[in-house]
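ingest -> validate -> predict -> emit
validate: passed (alphabet ok, no gaps, 258 aa)
predict: started
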Amino acid sequence: MAESSTRTVDRALSLLGIVCDRGSVSLADAARDADLSASTALRLLRTLEAQEFIRREGDGRYTPGARIVQLGALALANESLVSLASDAMRRMVEATGESCYLSIRGAGETALYIAIVEGTHSVRHASWVGRSIPLHGSAAGTVLTGDVDEAGYSIVRQGVESDVTAIAVPVMVGHRIVAALSSVVPSYRIDDEQIARIGELLLTEAGSIIAAPGSAPGSAPGSVPSSAPGGVATSTDAPTSTISPADSTDPRNEELAS
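emit:
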């Protein structure tokens, strides 16, 4: 029985590897590559699909699913995804003055903030690191589902909370989206021209993240590094309000959320 179970796991992992390597594969090709009958391959692929490790598209082909992408992003986080992104995030804040977030797929239909570099304005987005937001209706979530406009980024106004505009772009490894890089801005101080400028800056910085040198060793498996260089708050840091006390009488100094 143990040998049979081990063989089933081996076959399922082989199929998962084939889907991930190819990016998109038919049942017939997957079965052939794994040296399995079509019926056995279909049974195992359905099991992987039920667990969201793969996804069956409308044309019947299989592609990597949300769960495997999430695990890949978490593995990158353990290998210093946050550290790799820290310089890019700091440059975004230096260029815009607005808070910059790094997000990955969370559980179910959510995105998870794993790091922030806070903006320099007195009225700015407070840290939501460690919190989940919906995939649908948020800029980061939209990007993580692969839905971006022709310019390459997603814009959401009054999404998770009102009076906030978020601009997000994908962080890619090859053809895979592993994270979202976003700027979160109070809507009263941003216009279409500034949105386009921030979008272009985000695209440039997102492209630099995975290739960035100097990554630090990761933390324990299943976690995100508890700190990163240059004051980058991560998912193990407690969220705190970032509004300057000097501006506490300003009615706009509420905690903002993307």
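The helical segments are 2-22, 27-33, 38-50, 66-78, 81-96, 139-144, 192-209.
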